[in-house]
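Technical annex, item 7. During the second reporting period the consortium partners agreed on a shared format for inverse folding records so that results from different sites could be compared directly. Each record opens with the tokenized structure and is followed by the designed sequence. A conforming record, contributed by the partner at site C, is shown below for reference.
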């Protein structure tokens, strides 16, 4: 078969057209590809033909183009189409050059493209246009190496418009033997939140009825609003201040604005992820290894590439790129990057600014004063290797200010804080600390860690609110080295020296640590310390042996040479969620006495229940000297958009799960794993999932093993992105559980065979239509409908439609018989 015959067999892709003409209209401009000298007979038909041909960049498919083959063998297609395909492949400067050339002459030819490093030809054998782009002409492309794959838009279930919860935790002590015999007044700890319209009101309090002094103490109350667009949290009320460096955390009532990625966007990786560029002249295979582990293998066409988002670990990272081109040549590139957990990626910033009046906690609650106070800090990633920050504090009695830095270098990470202060009646002072960290990778699963710190403080240095400063040491120096010697043995050593002032003796210490795991279930650790201060030198040893009885239980024995204390401990953990429990018991003896203790916690569906018992005895475990038993409980009351439930205490966000009436009260299990679940609806008919984290994506799984046959549980899960202290009302099941079977007839009564259509609910036209299809006899079956009026619309030329009415009490499968078109039915 000839090439021309192959082209003509494209059927609908061929048409008779006039020959390409030169034009200055950019929308009509053409790319002209002159035929090769040996490509005679490309189009022997005697007329121009049109076909759709793929455009290839080497082996990469770029898209299709409508190509015209003239009678003389020239191929041409729209220049705008070529530029659109080339724009992401070559540099912006070269695209501009081609556009200028196109405007000047009204077309693009081979010579114009060759001038910017692009060769174009038409391949009559493959019926395709092939481009060869020089590596130096290609635009730099980014290749993401992180494990997080890009994905399309995600739809999350909306949280409740109004939600609230109250955690109630309590304890009561019974002293059988001791200075306060009898049952003590129960203590109740309260904390909760109300969320409405994106604003959260939260607070904490203590209550101890019958206790000496004040019964009720409010610990704090505040309003919080999260601006997710700018990742900023606004707070008003009793502030919870956070500090950096040498700062204190003063109790302030007022306003604050802050950004902490761990709270507002915990899924974002804020550490530097690394970027490296390289150029390929030929198609090549790239292997990327980090710390001797293969993280990605890529096949790339020629061009310039930026590798970014390396999956780095804390500490040193050894990166190797191995490039093998299509001719078999191999090149390797190595580089090292050291990352510290406190680094910020370039352009990212964290801050906390707190302003108001001093409000120390009193017996009844915060005591609001007229003393203004400010505390704040700001940190920014100046580059992927440098993070800088500043902090300041002030009140009516003094001020403190400082700076911080983190610098990542090939040899390790350097960090430092420096602060100055002035307190009325005390004077001025300063303090600084310098740290160094380095991780030395030995293999894929073993590494050594080296650290060093140097801290200095003057006598009068003091953050605000600290009272009279106490700085007994002017210089504190520390260093440590830890090594994983083998897969089962590790060892480390650290040393510390503190230079005393004002009569305070110097303190020197050196400590050696080690661990050995001779068997998978047996491990031994040791801690040997020598310390010397004003009382002289002394040697202490701490030894520990742990034997794992099974996956959930263990025995541990400890010996501490200080007071010759020995302890034997048993621990066991069983299950997660409802029905889980843990228990521990230990017995110890030392030179100052002996003791026996036991404690446990049971996690019920609606509460947490715990106990503990502490007993003390003489050294020989003979005479009892003290016995105390404590009983504890914790529960939560929760509400979301009118639904109420009781469950275990809520940590942050929560979800109330309830069954749809179609489930006939069947028990719903939430996040079931094996024979256990996080919660179940039970007798109350509602369940509480109390362990959702704000701004962290979560799938809540639901199942109802005893649901009626044919009940619709939907997808069996809800995808959530909870807001801070947010609540959800999740309904399992729906009315859309009816299956309908019937037959569609035409106006003359003949079956409508083999036609597709959809069923749309008249009361909810916004819902996705349900597809259906008729068989050769006109019969159809459709599932997922609800009681009510529906309209069936076929995809034939007349858009034939039918009315379908499902009775209110319809269940499972409904046979509706024959349906006629609406127009015929009205007649």
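Designed sequence (site C submission):
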């Amino acid at each position: 078969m000839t090439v021309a015959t192959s082209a003509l067999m494209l059927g609908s892709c061929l048409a008779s057209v006039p020959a390409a003409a030169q034009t200055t209209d950019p929308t009509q401009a053409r790319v002209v590809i002159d035929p090769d000298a040996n490509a005679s007979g490309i189009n022997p038909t005697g007329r121009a033909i049109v076909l759709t041909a793929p455009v290839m960049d080497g082996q990469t498919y770029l898209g299709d183009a409508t190509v015209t083959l003239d009678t003389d063998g020239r191929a041409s297609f729209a220049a705008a189409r070529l530029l659109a395909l080339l724009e992401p492949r070559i540099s912006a400067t070269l695209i501009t050059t081609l556009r200028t050339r196109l405007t000047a002459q009204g077309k693009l030819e081979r010579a114009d493209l060759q001038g910017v490093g692009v060769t174009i030809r038409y391949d009559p054998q493959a019926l395709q246009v092939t481009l060869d782009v020089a590596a130096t002409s290609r635009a730099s492309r980014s290749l993401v190496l992180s494990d997080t794959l890009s994905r399309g838009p995600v739809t999350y279930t909306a949280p409740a418009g109004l939600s609230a919860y109250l955690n109630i935790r309590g304890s009561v002590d019974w002293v059988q033997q001791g200075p306060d015999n009898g049952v003590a007044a129960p203590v109740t700890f309260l904390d909760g939140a109300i969320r409405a319209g994106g604003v959260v009101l939260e607070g904490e309090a203590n209550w101890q009825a019958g206790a000496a002094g004040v019964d009720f103490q409010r610990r704090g109350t505040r309003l919080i609003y999260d601006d997710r667009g700018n990742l900023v949290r606004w707070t008003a009320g009793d502030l919870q201040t956070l500090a950096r460096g040498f700062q204190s955390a003063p109790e302030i009532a007022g306003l604050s604005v802050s950004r902490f990625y761990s709270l507002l966007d915990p899924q974002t990786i804020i550490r530097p992820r690394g970027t490296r560029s390289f150029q390929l002249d030929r198609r090549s295979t790239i292997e990327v290894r980090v710390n001797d582990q293969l993280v990605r293998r890529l096949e790339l066409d020629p061009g310039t590439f930026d590798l970014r988002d390396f999956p780095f670990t804390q500490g040193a990272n050894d990166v190797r790129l191995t490039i093998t081109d299509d001719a078999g040549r191999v090149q390797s590139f190595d580089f090292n990057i050291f990352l510290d957990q406190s680094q910020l990626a370039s352009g990212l910033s964290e801050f906390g600014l707190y302003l108001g009046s001093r409000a120390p906690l009193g017996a009844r609650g915060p005591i609001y004063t007229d003393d203004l106070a400010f505390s704040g800090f700001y940190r920014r990633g100046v580059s992927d290797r440098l993070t800088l920050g500043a902090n300041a504090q002030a009140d009516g009695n003094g001020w403190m200010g400082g700076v911080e830095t983190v610098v990542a270098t090939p040899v390790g990470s350097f960090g430092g804080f420096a602060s100055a202060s002035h307190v009325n009646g005390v004077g001025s002072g300063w303090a600084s600390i310098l740290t160094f960290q380095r991780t030395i990778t030995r293999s894929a699963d073993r590494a050594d860690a080296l650290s060093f710190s140097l801290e200095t403080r003057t006598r009068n240095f003091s953050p605000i609110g600290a009272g009279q400063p106490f700085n007994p040491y002017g210089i504190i120096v520390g260093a440590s080295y830890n090594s994983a010697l083998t897969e089962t043995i590790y060892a480390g050593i650290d040393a510390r020296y503190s230079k005393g002032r004002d009569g305070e003796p110097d303190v020197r210490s050196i400590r050696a640590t080690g661990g050995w795991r001779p068997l998978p279930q047996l491990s031994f650790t040791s801690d040997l310390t020598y310390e010397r201060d004003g009382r002289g030198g002394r040697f202490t040893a701490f030894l520990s042996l742990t034997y794992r009885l099974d996956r959930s239980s263990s025995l541990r024995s400890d010996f501490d040479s200080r007071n010759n204390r020995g302890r034997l401990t048993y621990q066991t953990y069983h299950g997660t969620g409802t029905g889980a429990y843990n228990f521990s018991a230990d017995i110890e003896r030392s030179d100052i006495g002996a003791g026996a203790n036991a404690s446990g916690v049971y996690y019920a569906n609606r509460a947490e229940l715990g106990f503990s018992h502490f007993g003390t005895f003489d050294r020989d475990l003979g005479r009892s000297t003290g016995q105390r038993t404590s009983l504890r409980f914790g529960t939560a009351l929760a509400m979301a958009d009118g639904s109420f439930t009781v469950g275990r205490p809520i940590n942050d966000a929560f979800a109330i799960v309830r069954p749809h009436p179609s489930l006939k009260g069947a028990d719903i299990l939430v996040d079931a794993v094996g024979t256990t679940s996080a919660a179940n609806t039970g007798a109350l008919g509602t369940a509480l999932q109390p362990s959702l984290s704000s701004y962290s994506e979560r799938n809540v799984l639901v199942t109802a093993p005893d649901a009626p046959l044919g009940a619709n549980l939907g997808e069996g899960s809800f995808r959530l992105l909870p807001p801070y202290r947010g609540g959800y009302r999740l309904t399992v099941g729906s009315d859309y559980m009816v299956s309908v079977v019937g037959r569609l007839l035409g106006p003359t009564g003949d079956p409508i065979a083999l036609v597709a259509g959809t069923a749309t609910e008249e009361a909810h036209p916004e819902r996705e239509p349900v597809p259906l299809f008729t068989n050769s006899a006109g019969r159809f079956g459709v599932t997922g409908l609800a009681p009510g009026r529906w309209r069936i619309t076929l995809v034939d030329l007349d858009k034939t439609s039918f009315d379908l009415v499902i009775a209110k009490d319809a269940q499972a499968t409904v046979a509706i018989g024959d349906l006629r078109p609406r127009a015929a039915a009205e007649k």
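The two ends are 61 Å apart (CA to CA). The first helix runs from residue 3 to 8. All partners now use this format for quarterly exchanges.
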